């Protein structure tokens, strides 16, 4: 819009347009091209420089403008392809046998949303991937199967459906399935796009390919898994949670206890964050996780906030409206909410709970004081679908 058009808009719409007029005229670059300016830009380019006003509106927007779009990945569509990967490649040859989730707004870049990566990994009975470590922090959410385990810095953990597991940055970790187990599938979540954006990524393979189990099985659960209790004289000085496995059963019980005494949030109903038992803070510096319970018939209102969020349906059926689009989901489906997009959740069952696991870059938003949130005030707090 030209300066003249802005002035006309201001004159037509009166004082109510004054703020937008000031932004458009006084706060943004509004320089028309001319032969002299084009020649100037060409000259600057010779020295690997440029005029800031030519890109200012792009690199410093008035509000967040995510290049990611809302996506729903239906498990019933993906499962057969994940299983097929186990027939085509081995963990040794693939490195990590994973079907990754790609956001159409970031095609070819790798993220599922924002600077978060997600993928579905499968392991067959008797298989074991080699131990490795990397700069990226990672997490797992177990989707199906029996007999899966992970080993993190010598701690072996047995995994069950809907368990949430940490593999923090720099830790040696490996995964496998016991010979008497069944095919196991889980969601991997990593901050790898963020680490790569910062150009700080390292990757290494364990010199022995596999690490020794040096502690009792599920030792971190035994030490740190009791609610509101901490062990005496056990030191921990790392920036991530000492509890590596967060089990589904006590998580669901905690949500139901909370629901029994709370009216809940109008946006998220009953939401609880997985925490570091020592600090009460997020489980890792760059990624946080939560589980929320939507009671039968819950209809959430819309809000938006900064940060990128990936949800996996742990229980139940329902739908979410994200940026004006409705996405119907069921158990094990995955969907994403890009930064600063209005979203609302609904449990369509009148008798059963719905539970949504979520991981996000919320710790980064909070640490850098970039977290903002607002509710939708028009249309009684609900989006108009398809508009």
TrEMBL record:
Q: Name one Pfam family in it.
A: Cupin_2
What's in the keyword line of the UniProt record?
Dioxygenase, Oxidoreductase
User: Out of the domains of life, which is the source?
Assistant: Bacteria
Q: Which GO terms describe its molecular function?
A: dioxygenase activity
Q: What is this protein called?
A: NADPH dehydrogenase
Give the Cupin type-2 domain ranges.
Answer: 120-186, 292-358
Q: Which InterPro entries does the UniProt record give?
A: Cupin_2, GDO-like, RmlC-like_jellyroll, RmlC_Cupin_sf
Which PANTHER family does this UniProt record tie to the protein?
1,2-DIOXYGENASE PROTEIN-RELATED (PTHR41517), CUPIN (PTHR41517:SF1)
Kindly list any coiled-coil regions of this protein: none
């Amino acid at each position: 819009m030209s300066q003249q058009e802005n002035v006309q808009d201001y004159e037509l719409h009166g004082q109510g347009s004054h703020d937008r007029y000031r932004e458009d005229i006084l706060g943004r670059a509004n320089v028309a091209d001319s032969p002299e300016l084009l020649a100037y830009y060409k000259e600057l380019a010779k020295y690997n420089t440029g005029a800031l006003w030519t890109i200012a509106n792009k690199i410093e927007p008035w509000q967040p403008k995510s290049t990611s779009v809302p996506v729903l990945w239906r498990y019933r569509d993906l499962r057969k392809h994940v299983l097929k990967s186990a027939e085509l490649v081995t963990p040794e040859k693939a490195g990590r046998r994973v079907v990754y989730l790609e956001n159409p707004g970031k095609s070819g870049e790798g993220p599922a949303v924002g600077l978060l990566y997600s993928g579905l990994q499968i392991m067959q009975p008797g298989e074991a991937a080699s131990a490795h470590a990397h700069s990226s922090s990672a997490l797992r959410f177990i989707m199906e199967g029996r007999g899966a385990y992970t080993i993190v810095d010598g701690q072996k953990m047995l995994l069950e459906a809907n368990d949430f597991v940490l593999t923090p940055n720099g830790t040696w970790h490996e995964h496998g399935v016991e010979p008497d187990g069944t095919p196991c599938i889980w969601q991997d979540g990593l901050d790898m796009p963020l680490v790569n954006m910062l150009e700080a990524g390292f990757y290494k393979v364990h010199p022995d390919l596999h690490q020794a189990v040096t502690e009792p099985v599920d030792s971190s659960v035994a030490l740190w898994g009791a609610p509101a209790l901490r062990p005496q004289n056990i030191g921990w000085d790392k920036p991530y949670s000492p509890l590596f496995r967060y089990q589904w059963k006590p998580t669901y019980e905690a949500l139901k206890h909370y629901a029994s005494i709370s009216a809940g949030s109008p946006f998220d109903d009953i939401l609880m964050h997985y925490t570091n038992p020592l600090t009460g803070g997020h489980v890792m510096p760059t990624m946080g996780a939560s589980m929320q319970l939507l009671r039968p018939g819950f209809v959430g209102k819309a809000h938006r906030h900064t940060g990128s969020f990936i949800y996996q349906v742990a229980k139940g059926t329902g739908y979410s409206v994200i940026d004006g689009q409705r996405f119907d989901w069921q158990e094990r489906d995955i969907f994403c909410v890009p930064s600063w997009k209005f979203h609302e959740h609904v449990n369509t069952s009148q008798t059963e709970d719905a539970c949504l696991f979520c991981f996000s870059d919320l710790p980064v938003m909070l640490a850098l004081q970039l977290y903002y949130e607002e509710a939708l005030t028009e249309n009684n707090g609900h989006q108009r679908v398809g508009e």
